Amino acid sequence: GREGWRGESRGSPQQLAERYADLAASHSEALRQREEREWHNARLRQENARLRLENRRLRRENRCLFRQALLGPGPDKPPTDPAGEAEALRTQLKRLQEKHRRALRHLRRCRAAGRPEASGAEDGELDELLLEEEEQSLDK
After folding, report:
1. Per-residue pLDDT at 39 exceeds 90
2. Cα 28 to Cα 35: distance, rounded to the nearest angstrom
3. Is residue 121 assigned to a domain?
4. Which of 33, 65, 104, 138 has the highest Cβ tally under 10 A?
């Protein structure tokens, strides 16, 4: 009888040579694929590092821009016109006060009609707002 793989080999020398060649080709292909993966991973790591640096730069830029927006123009920029700024703020205040008055009138109408929009604000809050508005109109 024939022995196992450690003894006499099974198959002819030509079959063994073909099997060996197939194994060698598979091994070479596996090595090539591994090298390709390693090269691709190295490229991805480089790209990742570049993107991290870009992220840091953008975060710094965002913080800088945010600070500038909070602090206003720096010493190298001409000062803004305080009178113009005050006028713009007065105009904005008037617009907001008018919106507030219209909202209170709407709430008052809703309350009088018993509609659910008036229940969005608590009754005590609505009474307080309406009293403030009446006092302000009496002061004027």
Report:
1. yes
2. 11
3. no
4. 104
